Amino acid sequence: MTLIFREAVRGDLERIVELIADDAVAATRTGTYGAPHLAGFEAVAASPDNELVVAESDGEVVGVMQLTFIPGISRNGAARLLVEAVRVDKAQRGQGIGRLMMEHAHERGRARGCVLAQLTSDKQRPEAHRFYRNLGYEQSHEGFKLPL
Amino acid sequence: MTLIFREAVRGDLERIVELIADDAVAATRTGTYGAPHLAGFEAVAASPDNELVVAESDGEVVGVMQLTFIPGISRNGAARLLVEAVRVDKAQRGQGIGRLMMEHAHERGRARGCVLAQLTSDKQRPEAHRFYRNLGYEQSHEGFKLPL
């Protein structure tokens, strides 16, 4: 299988929402594809610090992730890469697509001067935690969320 | 005590680095104030999605935090607020400065259209975890980091 990584275009958005929603934890909170997702997409596209990346195989979008490049003062002025909304098509799992996506994310981070990658994963996702640990991630932090 | 919240200026930077470094977990990785911090500060100042905020009391900087406003597709196209590098002067703790800072962070997030605040805290910081839970945060995620 050959994977192509590219920035998402508007025509990918319905498929992206489908991938993000096809998940026990995220299904209810993702919503049905519509105007709020399009507004979110436009905001991501307009931000110089964000990239929405899709993985394409044989012309089909099989994975998605959002990358955010964050400048900072701590850690000796280091920029960091935040990875969010990582999804691989359920029908395509077990072929290493997720690992290749994360390697691409890290390459993009390095290209943007980031010296650290970070992400959070819901405590209900033990398989995802194993996946990230296998990639070398240290499970060093607690993650907190608050509706505003 | 009256707190003033404002965006940091370059003249605050040495004090900010001092606050960030004055911490058992972060001391070694923050580094000594110098050119990398200045470069990080300039990058934060240049980013439309980031704000470095200081809390000032009687003309003295007593707290710092970095806010990042992140657009997105998941959670029905919601933008989220990421809070990083939260520090209160050790000599000024116990007066509620941290809580007021976080309330200011949430106000800034809402003003930027964010419907969710998120942050991570090192597993070595149980007091910080209690602080965030007391603010209403749900400790729902595992946090992962990887050097790039």
Automatic annotation (TrEMBL), chains A, B:
Keywords: Acyltransferase, Transferase. Residues 3-148 form the N-acetyltransferase domain. GO terms for molecular function: acyltransferase activity, transferring groups other than amino-acyl groups. InterPro entries: Acyl_CoA_acyltransferase, Bact_Acetyltransf, GNAT_dom. It comes from the Bacteria. PANTHER family: AMINOALKYLPHOSPHONATE N-ACETYLTRANSFERASE-RELATED, AMINOALKYLPHOSPHONATE N-ACETYLTRANSFERASE-RELATED-RELATED. This is GNAT superfamily N-acetyltransferase. It comes from Promicromonospora sukumoe.
